[in-house]
Write a structure and sequence with these properties.
The complex is a heterodimer of chains A (about 260) and B (about 220). Chain A has about 260 residues and is α+β, with helices and mostly antiparallel strands. Chain A is about 35% helix and about 15% strand. Chain A has a five-stranded mixed beta sheet. Chain A has a two-stranded antiparallel sheet with strand order 6-7. In chain A, helix 5 (about 180-190) runs antiparallel to helix 7 (about 200-215). Chain A is elongated and about 60 Å long. The relative contact order of chain A is 0.13. With about 220 residues, chain B is an all-alpha fold. Chain B has one domain: Fumarate reductase/succinate dehydrogenase, transmembrane subunit (3 helical TM bundles of succinate and fumarate reductases), CATH 1.20.1300.10. In chain B, helix 2 (about 10-35) crosses helix 5 (about 55-85) and helix 2 (about 10-35) crosses helix 9 (about 155-185). The chains are: A alpha+beta (about 260), B mainly alpha (about 220). The interface between A and B is large, with 53 and 42 residues.
Chain lengths: ~260, ~220
């Protein structure tokens, strides 16, 4: 490591609210520790902005340990920055060089309107979940652990799909702003387990309909979502959703 | 029928139709290539094949209407989905950088299926004008199919446009073929590599196969 501290030029998208046009602003930040996380670097910038009496940069964050899915921004054109399977909060400044210029933009999608600066409204994801991403059968008391046998590989696949944190990087990275990876992960995690199977057809029809209604784009199988996903959600889930939807369409009882 | 209309107007339904029509058009490419390869066998064999084919009036009518429907469906859905996908992100990023290691995707523009599709459409229209309608370069009355093919393929504009057209078609297929399987949900770790490989091979075979005809006409006829 050539520098323990680095100087940076930050080009950040500033937009007061959804109604006003945004624009880029450049900031010089000096002496940033390479041990700082990306969000800590933004905290340092905001401290300086506040001291200068300027408006700090708004960005989403919560747990800062890669679990909650709140943080997320386009860093030099890559969702969550250059590392694989890493959220913005887990990205560290040692990944950058002295005197680097870093362009920071919010997720850009019609379905994710900008609230302020780098904060976008991702409630479209919540509405997709509300449309069918749950199990509504009455399960009663917790059954004995071994009464419903679940093969380990199914359980693993369901768990892999369930590791989606709903951050929106898939939508941000997709050239079509498609939410297929997110929706397919949520469809898969329930379709793979016995508890979710009875409603699987209805679920996929409703969730896809909501996804389309929210004006997300469609999938052209470029695989950018999978590459950008901090939770490592696989494209296999999209294929599974395609199968589920086809099956549900052909077998549904609607007229 | 409501369920069918709803399914076909959904994002996934459109991709199914896109995939199925694309794969069926791939099937047409195989038969077209196989028929054309008779050019290499000899003038007599090729003429015999062409005349026999043209005598099947009912079959040809069905085939032509079928191909037209497949093509138009593929085209309309391409326009609709491209427009929808464009409006799903109204403001583009200032910086775009792929997270995939493949230089292919970074080298080609993001909307290369659309761009290659439009070029292939232009090529097909030219091809129809030349061979099916005979407008641009009409030959003498009663010209044999073999002579017509050689004469048209030796035309400098046709030569360049066809070679460029089929190479672009190859690029279109290199993504389209395997992508159709994924769209239809046909993905399995055991077969995925084979499908990808088959898609690339098919793209190369189609591009090289069809490009060989104008080259042959110019070099050896």
């Amino acid at each position: 490591m050539s520098h323990e501290t680095i100087n940076l030029t930050l080009k950040i998208w500033r937009q007061p609210n959804a109604e006003v046009e945004g624009r880029f602003e450049e900031y010089k930040l000096e002496g940033v520790s390479t041990h700082a996380s990306f969000l800590e670097m933004l905290d340092i910038l905001n401290d300086e902005l506040i001291e200068e009496g300027k408006e700090p940069v708004a960005f989403d964050h919560d747990c800062r340990e890669g679990i909650c899915g709140m943080c997320g921004m386009m860093i030099n054109g890559q969702a969550h920055g250059p590392d694989n399977e890493t959220t913005t909060c887990q990205l560290h400044m040692r990944r950058f060089q002295h005197n680097d210029k870093i362009t920071i933009e919010p997720w850009r999608a019609t379905a994710f309107p900008v609230i302020k600066d780098l904060v976008v409204d991702r409630s479209a994801f919540d509405r997709i979940i509300t449309a069918g991403g749950y199990v509504s059968v009455n399960t009663g008391n917790a059954p004995d652990a071994n009464t419903i046998p679940i093969p380990r590989k199914d359980q693993q696949k369901a768990m892999d799909a369930a590791s989606c944190i709903g951050c929106g990087a898939c939508v941000a990275a997709c050239k079509n702003a498609s939410a297929m990876l997110f929706t397919s992960a949520k469809v898969s995690q329930l379709a793979l387990l016995p508890h979710g199977k009875s409603e699987r057809g209805e679920r996929v029809l409703k969730m896809v309909a909501k996804m389309d209604e929210e004006k997300f784009g469609s999938c052209t199988n470029t695989g950018e979502c999978e590459a950008a996903c901090p939770a490592g959600i696989s494209l296999d889930n999209i294929a599974r959703m395609n199968r589920e939807y086809l099956k549900a369409t052909l077998c549904s009882t609607e007229s | 029928m409501n369920w069918l209309i709803r399914a076909l107007s959904s994002s996934l339904g459109k991709k199914y139709v896109m995939g199925i029509t694309g794969l069926l058009l791939c099937g047409f490419l195989i038969t077209h290539l196989a028929g054309n390869l008779l050019l290499f066998v000899g003038a007599e064999e090729f003429n015999h094949y062409a005349h026999t084919l043209h005598e099947q009036k009912a079959l040809l009518a069905v085939a032509e209407v079928g191909l037209f429907v497949l093509f138009v469906a593929h085209l309309i859905l391409a326009v609709v989905t491209t427009w929808e996908n464009k409006s799903a992100r109204k403001q583009d990023y200032d910086v775009n950088q792929s997270k995939q290691g493949t230089p292919l995707l970074t080298f080609f523009p993001h909307n290369w299926m659309w761009i290659t599709g439009v070029i292939v459409l232009g090529f097909i229209l030219l091809h129809l004008v030349d061979f099916r309608l005979g407008i641009r370069n009409p030959g003498p009355e009663g010209e044999e199919p073999f002579d017509k093919a050689v004469r048209l393929l030796r035309d400098p504009i046709t030569f360049c446009a066809y070679i460029a057209g089929v190479i672009v078609l190859g690029f279109h297929l290199s993504h389209g073929f395997s992508s159709a399987f994924q769209s239809l949900g046909l993905s399995h770790p055991k077969y995925n590599k084979f499908i990808k490989c088959a898609g690339t091979s098919f793209a190369v075979i189609v591009a090289v196969g069809f490009a060989s005809f104008p080259l042959w006409a110019v070099l050896f006829q």
